[in-house]
Amino acid sequence: MADADAEFDGSGHRARLRGRLLDNGGDALLDHELIEYLLMLAIPRRDTKPLAKRLLHDFGGISGLLSADPVAISRVDGVGDTAVGALKIVQAAALRMLRVKASEAPILASWQALLDYLRADMAHILIERVRLLHLNGKNMLIRDEVIAQGSVDQAAVHVREVISRAIQLGSSAIILVHNHPSGDPAPSRADITLTREIAEAGKRLGISVHDHVIIGAEGHCSMRAMGLL
């Protein structure tokens, strides 16, 4: 269905939402009102409150909605490309802000900022994604890149490729990160084995593996904190 629908005059309601937002900030609006206001910019002639509530319900809340796959969002009746684009640009802006905050100081000194960024990016996606954070000798982030993306529960990662990429970028240390689409961040036996193999290979070349962080909708796990690395 296209973004435009039957003519709708909600100017008074929208003006009140805008006033609350501008006068008191985002905390003055409920989650569905935030999404409603965003959607009304993309679908100006439609009452977007029912659609906002449905999207939040279908995707499990605002975090799940903003991080959802664009194709999945577009399958919801009433959502067109313009509305999907509006939702995804908000996610992109939020991730940009969080990534900048995480990279402004040495990673190990801004660990919470890093976790905030990783959760926003990876906690709710439905396929497994593996990213590698490259650090210099001062533990500053020099590169953040996705190195594998797999099926609903598996992504292929090879020790040689991880170490080769670290050498190519001149990384002094790396942090592995991946998500568990199941929501449970507990490391699997395969996660532990792979991490130890990468750490051993890196050690021989002077590349430290600071941690392997697993992100899930239910939280996160640090293999370093768990004594597994």
Describe this structure in words.
With 229 residues, the chain is an alpha+beta fold. Helices cover 47% and strands 16% of the residues. It folds into two domains: 11-95, no CATH class; 106-222, 3-Layer(aba) Sandwich (Cytidine Deaminase, domain 2), CATH 3.40.140.10. A five-stranded mixed beta sheet has the order 2-1-3-4-5, with helices on both faces. The radius of gyration is 21 Å and the shape is elongated.
SSE blueprint and pairings:
Blueprint: H1 11-24, H2 31-42, H3 49-58, H4 62-66, H5 70-74, H6 81-103, H7 111-122, E1 129-135, E2 141-149, H8 159-169, E3 173-179, H9 189-204, E4 208-216, E5 219-222
Parallel strand pairs: 3-4
Antiparallel strand pairs: 1-2, 1-3, 4-5
Please give the domain count. 2
* Approximate strand percentage: 15-25%
Strand order of the largest sheet: 2-1-3-4-5
What is the CA–CA distance across the termini?
Answer: 51 Å
CATH class of the largest domain: Alpha Beta
The major β-sheet equals: 5 strands, mixed
Low-confidence stretches: 1-6
Q: Tell me, rounded to a whole number, the average pLDDT.
A: 89
Shape: elongated
Count of DSSP-assigned helices: 9
Structural class: alpha+beta
Features of this protein?
47% helix, single chain, alpha+beta, 2 domains, five-stranded mixed β-sheet
